[in-house]
Amino acid sequence: MSAPVADPEPAVFAALADPTRWRVLGTLARRGDGTATTLASELPVSRPAVIKHLGVLERAGLVSRRRAGREVLYRVEPARLEATARAIAAVAVAWDRRLAALKALAEAP
Description:
The protein is built from five helices and two strands; from the N terminus they run ααααββα. It is mainly alpha-helical and 109 residues long.
């Protein structure tokens, strides 16, 4: 299992920017866990491509892996997604405040 990075958002955003990785993450979230082989059977990409995408997601802290016998099982790490969602929400709140202040200035007599 990889250690989380100190400032996850840039790595998370970069990982999620790719539509295939987004689908890998979504498929894994629906399944609960899965191997690269089972994920590849549900996606329009090869097993080696899934492994590469899982590596990017793992380095971003979005998935973790564990060995179960000869298989490597991957699962979503919801804490990283929740932390990113909180960061996005904080940015949204800040922009809402700025826009409200701008509106008040524009509407002031």
